[in-house]
Amino acid sequence: MEKELTEKDAIRALDNEMSAINREICGKYPNKQGGRDGNPTQELREIHKEGGRRYCKIKEIYMNHERLPESEVMKIVAGDF
């Protein structure tokens, strides 16, 4: 039987995914946020928008459910929706 995730578990998985991407991008640049002036680069801004889009989708699918199958949730975390 497939494992089921709660909304909290799904958001935690999304946070882990987004922080890994964020670390990878920030590792390429010497400044804290990446930009010349210390602000986030365009690449980071796009990643943050995408993370927000995935977060909203998770909130939407959990609206009437307490638990959902892990495979369905991980598609959203990976951005395949």
Radius of gyration: 15 Å
Helical proportion, percent range: 55-70%
By helix and strand content, what is the structural category? mainly alpha
Extended strand count: 2
Largest sheet: 2 strands, antiparallel
Task: Please report which band the strand proportion falls in: under 5%, 5-15%, 15-25%, 25-35%, 35-45% or over 45%.
Answer: 5-15%
Q: How far apart lie the N and C ends?
A: 23 Å
Tally of helical runs: 3
Overview of this structure, please?
- Helix content is 62%, strand content 7%.
- It is mainly alpha-helical and 81 residues long.
- Helix 1 (7-27) packs antiparallel against helix 2 (42-61) and helix 1 (7-27) runs parallel beside helix 3.
Would you kindly provide a brief summary of this structure?
By secondary structure, the chain is mainly alpha-helical. It has helices at residues 7-27, 42-61, 70-78, and strands at 4-6, 67-69.
